[in-house]
């Protein structure tokens, strides 16, 4: 930075100190001359920056050059893989939620076919009617779901399973994952 008088701020400061101390002091002039010479060739600054192994340049030790780039690239790769993993896990979670919604609807449809007096008595009639109702519900939703229905204690238990595609699953060795859920449906209370 330059001073308004035409010199640098450091030179202006030195001139101000000379005016305050008086130019007649030869010791002060000699000390100022030494400081000016050291600052011109930067030897005073280099002496402050010397390490145990010798002088240090302004860029740091030669052996550390370029060591930041691999670190940045490695961290970027780790963050990228982590992003893919979170996306894949989120995709699998959403597939499970969608299957749970389908299975809940199928269980409600199957539960409506069960009568409280039919609590799994002799014969497969209640489970067959409940399974047919669950399959009818799923067929209207175009769902590719495997269903297993059982009736007990006045309720229909529906187990649903399917292979669900996972976003970025190929990167982790499994483009599809087996998702399974269970839902229980009870008959609606009718007056």
Topology overview:
Elements: H1 9-21, H2 26-41, H3 43-48, H4 68-113, H5 125-140, E1 146-152, E2 155-165, E3 176-185
Antiparallel strand pairs: 1-2, 2-3
Query: Termini distance?
Result: 93 Å
Tell me the number of strands.
3
Give the strand content: 5-15%
Structural class: alpha+beta
Q: Sheet bearing the most strands, described?
A: 3 strands, antiparallel
User: Helix and strand succession?
Assistant: HHHHHEEE
Can you offer a commentary on this structure?
- There is one protein chain.
- This protein is α+β, with helices and mostly antiparallel strands and 191 residues long.
- It has a domain at 85-116 and 124-185.
- Helices cover 51% and strands 15% of the residues.
- It has helices at residues 9-21, 26-41, 43-48, 68-113, 125-140, and strands spanning 146-152, 155-165, 176-185.
- A 3-stranded antiparallel sheet has the order 1-2-3.
- Strand 1 and strand 2 (155-165) form a beta hairpin.
- Helix 4 crosses helix 5.
- The longest helix is centred in the middle third of the chain and has 46 residues, at 68-113.
- The protein is rod-shaped and about 120 Å long.
- The chain starts with 8 loop residues before the first helix and ends in a 6-residue tail after the last strand.
- The model is unreliable at 1-6 (pLDDT under 50).
- This is Putative Flp pilus-assembly TadG-like N-terminal domain-containing protein.
- It comes from Nakamurella alba.
- Keywords: Membrane, Transmembrane, Transmembrane helix.
- InterPro entries: Tad_N (IPR028087).
- The chain crosses the membrane at residues 71-94.
